[in-house]
Amino acid sequence: MIDGLIAARKAANITQVELGQRIGQRQTFVSKFELGERRLDAAEFVKVSRAIGADPFDIMRKAESD
User: What tens digit of pLDDT does each residue of 9-59 get?
Assistant: First the structure.
């Protein structure tokens, strides 16, 4: 699912810095979960998805089918 978040962020032309600002976190927070150094809980996943304009359920469905 993280790969889906990364792809959606990049497709929306949103940098890690911009995403961090949108969710009230630092760029390092975004970098760590994108690199797999930190996990996102369900609420964080939804918040990040919405901050990049993606449907969290679509990302989950796509990850399940891959």
Answer: 999 999 999 999 999 999 999 999 999 999 999 999 999 999 999 999 999
Three-state SS letters, the chain:
CHHHHHHHHHHCCCCHHHHHHHHCCCHHHHHHHHCCCCCCCHHHHHHHHHHCCCCHHHHHHHHHHC
Closest to 56 in 3D by CA, of 34, 37, 39, 41: 41
Angle at alpha carbon of residue 58, lines to 35 and 17, rounded to 5°: 40
The upper half-sphere exposure of residue 23, i.e. CA atoms within 13 Å in the direction of its Cβ, equals 25
Q: What are phi and psi of 35, to 5 degrees?
A: -85, -5
